[in-house]
Amino acid sequence: MPSRVDGARRGWLLATLVMIVVLVADQVSKRVVEHTIERGEERRFLPGVQLVNTRNHGVAFGFSAGSQTLVTILIVLALLALLAYFARHVRQPLMWLPTGMLVGGALGNILDRLRHGSVTDFIKLPLGWPPFNVADASITLGILILLVLVDSSRRRVR
Prior knowledge:
Blueprint: H1 4-36, E1 42-46, E2 49-56, H2 68-88, H3 96-116, E3 119-124, H4 134-157
Antiparallel strand pairs: 1-2, 2-3
């Protein structure tokens, strides 16, 4: 039977693997878009989905555009809080998944901010939805999964 240390190691390992997959998928997809689509150009991808090459100076989906330094500091603080929470709940089933998704997505966008001063967004949905990228999608899904896990954990405690 695995020890508590083995369970913690497994959680950290799985979170790290998810983080790497998200980070690589995000960075590769952004580089492909930057090299194949001119800035401002739109290309049909799927029905209702366009590929574009835009720059975002805010956080996910263009919200809170402002000081890059402030945005980056807030993201780093949020990541530290997430990692502290994960360290305390590393053995909770599936907690590694949203942690890896959130960290990978945040690091992907931070790398863009450091490299370009903004983030490359390229997925454009209909109805005026702001363009986003793989990192933004991973962050959004990671938050939703984290909320479900935290809620299910609280329900089990009751």
